[in-house]
Amino acid sequence: MILLVKTGGEASLPEWRSLFAELLPDLDVRWWDDPGVKPEEVAYAFLWAPDPGRLATFHNLRLIISSGAGIDHLTADPHLPAHVPVAKMGAPEAAARMREFALATVFFHHRQFHAYVANQRRKVWEEVETTEAANRTVGVMGLGSLGLPSAEALRDAGFRVKGWGRTRRDIPGIQTFGGEAGFDAFLQGTEILVCLLAATPETAGIVNARTLAKLPRGASVINGARGSHVVIEDLIAALDSGHIEAATLDVFETEPLPQDSPVWTHPKILVTPHIASFPNRAARARFVADAIRTFEASGTVLNRYDPARGY
Ligand code: NDP
Questions:
Q1: Cα 216 from chain centre
Q2: DSSP conformation class of 208
Q3: Domain check: are 187 and 133 in the same one?
Q4: What is the pTM assigned to this prediction?
Q5: At the N or C end, where does the chain have fewer CB atoms within 10 A?
Q6: What does the pLDDT read at residue 100?
Q7: pLDDT tens, position by position, 139-168
Q8: 210 included as an active-site residue
Q9: Interval between CA 41 and ligand 1 midpoint (Å)
């Protein structure tokens, strides 16, 4: 049985092979477009952004494992075989890394470090008055495998935390809201907005002029989810008007961020290159091995993508 791999570039294949040799010694690990692969022998695929149509040619494919937590790179394939289940990357390290990103960026905005970055460029020595975490309200949109641990870490760091998802659920120490009905109440008073939503047609462009206008003046925005969530022109307009204080963007509609994007040089935007949560190869290999073993033992798909829900 073959496990096809397409993540990290073909140069990474020897490392994947040595990791899987320990974890799944019975599988033959091959690169995605290895011409020596017999399509009927492919049982598993672990990948990022497959060439459209190719997965559908493997008629004995049992399980697709996304090398990232998002699945937009898979659903972009119009021929994605609907009968093959998809496991989204769910390595515990992914949650730990997103927790770090949420803490780092929320503290950056909470302590107004963007102002010090700007001041340093102008050699200005000036204190910016800020408040304690206990007086700061952070709103986390999306309380899934990455959003929930991030919201809990922010709560544990002393912030007042609000959380919003498709459906409302109780989380100790976090004020939660659900669906469209709860959206405005969630935004009201949110001083640092953290987007960790799934990317679906319903959530596309959700951080737009209307949403930003509902945040209090001086709020900050952090997007660690997908570029499709933020309407960049609306964010820039809100930053330029002073309604929004600053933003950190890790993800973009086009990546790498094009050279001519105004985002690169905007003084109130911190750009990071899609690094919020990226577990290392060993951690991802452990998750793949768990997913395949669990699937073989019981048919259960870990961290399963639900096409009806869209995430
Ligand atoms: P999950 O699928 O585990 O959770 C998605 C969350 O979005 C859930 O809380 C869900 O609500 C909520 N949601 C979905 N649709 C709606 C809606 N219409 N209205 C309100 N809430 C909605 O996702 P993950 O936590 O695994 O990933 C979160 C995001 O992070 C994804 O966009 C992913 O692509 C991105 N990501 C970014 C990385 C980076 O390095 N920047 C790395 C990995 C992932 P409910 O709880 O009710 O189901």
A1: 25
A2: S
A3: yes
A4: 0.94
A5: N
A6: 98
A7: 999 999 999 999 999 999 999 999 999 999
A8: no
A9: 33
